[in-house]
Write a structure and sequence with these properties.
- The chain has 16 helices and nine strands.
- By secondary structure, it is mostly helical.
- It has a single domain, classed as Cytochrome P450 (Cytochrome p450), CATH 1.10.630.
- The strands form four sheets. A three-stranded antiparallel beta sheet has the order 1-9-6. Strands 2-5 form a two-stranded antiparallel ribbon.
- A hairpin with a 5-residue loop joins strand 3 and strand 4.
- Helix 6 crosses helix 7 and helix 9 crosses helix 15.
- It is globular, with a radius of gyration of 22 Å.
- The structure holds protoporphyrin IX containing FE.
- The site of protoporphyrin IX containing FE has 22 residues, from helix 1, helix 9 and helix 15.
């Protein structure tokens, strides 16, 4: 039972337990990310160049899933799983590695979600094996973190200086219950890994389809941190200063919110102010205990909020006065007490990866599939149903 799967008092305990670890995470330390970026580039460079155009054809979505698998396991456990480097992930060689187990387990959870209290009906052998493999691996990390904590207590005073931030170790300073630690880190992994990969994937699909946006963003990046041979690694402050990058990310999260559907159960009988009646303008009554599913995807495409071009990708809209007060009309990270704890981290990591990619590649063009209409693969997170097939130059 972790923060995602509990409600009420158990949820407040989880939130109070996890929050300080997020507050203390040093999101501006981008050095670690660059290591993964280098492996990412070398994976792309292994691909053959196309005759005539000299571009490289690549499917980015799967690579981003490997990249965020490595960056999440590094942040959470202090030990990147090596999904990018090993190729195990893409080749799927039958061996149940942590990354594969995690994906199968996550798929099973998505299948269980709509079954509600009949969730146990989805309980195949592969799913059970995947859950136990993922848990067993995390249990090893948990015992290591607890051992380290004991050692650090014995030699108090030595720790802290130049120490790499590891979420699990930080959390272990507040609870030493192995089951709680295991459940909570698996929940944070579930919350942060595929969501960030989806954001990156949709961003590059939008950039490939909109060459003028790519060009404009590359020019802004060039002015701040250089591109090609003049490129230098961006700091967090520099990333924040690239306004067009922020607008693009906001626009991608609007059109393609990774958490596209969400749900709540009513604690008391209540009414929603409108949405009922033949014209949708009457209140709707909600009984106590009733489950309400709502679509963030539809909210983000409402023409009364975003104008007649609500379905179009137009980052410039974020510079317009009308969107300054969008408030609850833009909810990719949700709002209120359960607002995403990793928002800052997700935005920083995504900005870093996008900037680094754009420093290296002059142009990105869509391969046939990327030009077709959108296709959605919606499980726990909404990914692109056809992947992100592009040519990089
Ligand atoms: C683009 C990336 C991300 C998106 C779109 C996103 C979106 C969301 C949303 C919509 C929720 C609310 C869920 C609900 O209402 O039930 C949420 C919660 C949460 N997110 Fe994120 N998230 C992202 C990245 C991350 C990252 C990187 C982490 C951590 C490393 C993270 C950690 C969490 C946690 C722990 C919660 C649970 C908060 C609670 O229930 O109190 N998220 N996220």
């Amino acid at each position: 039972m972790g923060i995602f799967s509990v409600d009420g008092v158990s949820w407040s305990h989880s939130r109070a337990l996890l929050r300080p670890s997020f507050d203390r995470a040093n999101v501006s330390d981008l050095g670690q990310l660059e290591g993964f970026m280098q492996i990412f580039f070398s994976r792309i460079n292994e691909l053959p160049r196309q005759p005539l155009t000299h571009t490289r054809a690549v499917e980015l979505q799967e690579l981003f899933q490997c990249l965020t698998m490595d960056s999440s396991t590094d942040f959470l456990f202090g030990d990147p799983i090596g999904a990018l480097a090993s190729k195990k992930y893409t080749l799927g060689n039958g061996e149940m590695a942590f990354d594969k187990a995690f994906d199968i387990a996550q798929y099973g959870l998505a299948m269980r979600a709509p079954l509600s209290s009949f969730y146990w009906l989805y309980n195949g052998r592969e799913f059970r094996k995947a859950c136990s493999t993922a848990r067993a691996q995390v249990a090893i990390y948990v015992s290591r973190a607890l051992r380290k904590l004991n050692l650090a207590e014995k030699k108090s005073g030595e720790e802290g200086l130049g120490k790499k931030y590891v979420f699990l170790e930080e959390l272990a300073e507040r609870t030493q219950d192995p089951q709680v630690l295991q459940d909570q880190v698996l929940n944070v992994m579930l919350a942060g890994r595929d969501t960030t990969a989806a954001l990156l994937s949709w961003t590059f699909l939008c950039l490939a389809r909109n060459p003028e946006v790519y060009k404009k963003l590359r020019a802004e990046i060039s002015a701040v941190v250089g591109v090609d041979e003049d490129a230098r690694l961006p700091t967090q402050a520099e990333l924040r200063s690239i306004q067009y990058l922020r607008w693009i990310i906001q626009e991608v999260l609007r059109l393609y919110p990774p958490v596209a559907l969400n749900a709540r159960r009513a604690l008391h009988a209540t009414t929603l102010p409108y949405g009922g009646g033949p014209d949708g303008n009457s209140p709707i009554s909600i009984r106590k205990g009733e489950r309400i599913v709502y679509s963030v995807f539809s909210l983000h495409r409402r023409t009364d909020l975003y104008g007649p071009d609500a379905n179009e990708f137009r980052p410039e809209r974020w510079g317009e006065e009308a969107l300054r007060r969008i408030g609850w009309g833009w909810l990719p990270f949700n709002g209120g007490p359960r607002i995403c704890l990793g928002q800052q981290m997700a935005l920083t990591h995504a900005s870093y990866f996008v900037t680094r990619m754009m420093q290296v590649y002059k142009e990105i063009t869509p391969k046939d599939f990327a030009l077709a209409d959108d296709s959605y693969d919606t499980k726990l997170v909404m990914a692109s149903g056809r992947g992100v097939h592009v040519f990089l130059f």
